[in-house]
Amino acid sequence: MSVEVFGHVIDGVCETPVGHQSELVNPVTGDVYARAAVGTADVVDRACRSSAAASRKWRRATPAQRQELLLALADALESNAKYFLEVECRSTGKPLAQVRNDEIPQCVDFLRYFAGIARSLPGAAAMEYAEGATSYVRREPIGVIGSIAPWNYPLMMAVWKIAPALATGNTLVLKPAEETPETAVMLGVLAAQIYPPGVLNVVCGDRDTGAALVAHPVPRMIALTGSTRAGVAVAKAAAEDTKLLHLELGGKAPAVVFADADLDGAVAGIVAGAFYNSGQDCTAATRILVQDPIVEEFTARLTAAVADLRLGGPDAVDRLGPLVSRAHRDRVAEMVNRRAINTNVRIGGGKLAGPGFFYLPTVISGVEQDDELVQEELFGPVVTVQAFSTEAEAIELANGTKYALASSVWTADHGTAMRMTAELDFGCVWVGTHGTLTAEMPHGGFGSSGYGKDLSEFALAEYTRVKHVMHVTGA
Q1: Do 257 and 395 belong together in one domain?
Q2: What is the rounded radius of gyration, in angstroms, for the C-alpha atoms of the chain?
Q3: pLDDT-derived band of residue 318, with 50, 70 and 90 as boundaries?
Q4: Do residues 443 and 225 lie in contact, with contact meaning Cβ atoms separated by under 8 Å?
Q5: What is the mean pLDDT of residues 97-126?
């Protein structure tokens, strides 16, 4: 059986891999189905120099020209959606319906959104702030961006990195996750047919490849989506030559359910927000905080709803997919197995027998605030339930981890919702839903969840630098 091989895309050419290659494993079956190049420091250097050369001209492209090419990339992705669907599901085990109905349309929409706002970057009017001189602000591209994408949404995270960077006139070296590089390479091949050579380069590889990209002197900004541990390592390395950083890191999102909430709506919304993508989402609702009077009823309803979830491969209807790798599935299992003795596994709590990297949807009650399951990101289909008495206690528990990316509030009272949204220390607070994203609104957290915003006009500003220009007029 022939094995497909994915190579780097550098200077407009999809290269035939040479040297060491990584194995790509189907998480549904556990079988190796393809291989990918592993970029060395020399490969990273070629990609960075290619992007630097392309930057000299691309940075002068007008907003209208940037818009035109981003729209062309969106059209190309939409036209080739069938192929991206097949490859994305093969590499991740995601349900076909999830990728076909949600993720690919969102990727196309995000590209078109950034194409639109590429022509409307805000700027200050020229003004005489000093006597005899006129000042104005230039908003310029940063230059070459080094981007590192994660494995949980391979295509979407590639788009999140590419769209704002190219919309603002930067060039880009993108390193996709070692486990799931395929659709990023495919997007790079499409871009090579649309953009000048070197504007978007894709380098496959492992942790060492990413480290070489961060350490390379050419990129002036590193944009990483990944774990908090990875973010800390990148920040330390980037400090050596004062690179700008854009870090979207881990999460441990609370969902706070008050006694007056619509329980059916809260259960349905939290199950969707917790178990979408098998919980492999930094915004997943992993900590369910429930007010005392309803905690037992809510937990029973939640457990019953989770019991209806089924596991299966991409072709299965209404199923959760596997975790991305054996190593990650084992990490989730080990963390659950280390749980405190006072906890109660209401449902799940183990691996699914058979091939693939499936983990049973799990609900655990009886946890304490300092338990590992409450404090540390697990990144799998596991939620914990805690009780609270007062609004003040709910705020203390919700804010009581190092992560500050996303949260949600479930209540029928407008005043409660308003107070909670002000007090919850998270980059996003949903009310009556959990996990809904839109291109027009920013995504990003505080604290150990990183800094910088994806999506929206705020992301566009992240990929620019501001220069003050003053002309002496003598008037």
Answers
A1: yes
A2: 23
A3: confident
A4: no
A5: 93
Domain boundaries, position 100: 4-249+449-468
Which two structure tokens, joined as six digits, stand for 331? 């990490």
Q: How large is the greatest C-alpha to C-alpha distance in the chain, in angstroms? A: 81
My answer on whether 241 and 184 are in the same domain is: yes
Tokens, residue 30: 């556990």
Q: pLDDT tens, 219-245?
A: 999 999 999 999 999 999 999 999 999
Sheet holding 362-365, edge to edge: 344-347, 362-365, 382-388, 285-291, 253-257, 406-410, 428-431
Q: Which residue has the tokens 């590889």?
A: 205
Both tokens of residue 428? 């996003």
Residue found by looking up tokens 């003040």 in the block: 392
Q: Are residues 291 and 370 in the same domain?
A: yes
Statement: residue 434 has pLDDT above 90: yes
CB-based contact 203:43 (threshold 8 Å): yes
> Given its phi and psi angles, is residue 366 left (phi above 0), alpha (psi -120 to 50 degrees) or beta?
left
Token look-up 């490849």 returns 209
**Which residue numbers are catalytic?**
248, 282
Q: Kindly report the CA angle at 214 between 452 and 94, in degrees rounded to 5?
A: 65
The structure tokens listed for 158 are 């590639």
- The reply to whether 188 and 70 lie within a common domain is yes
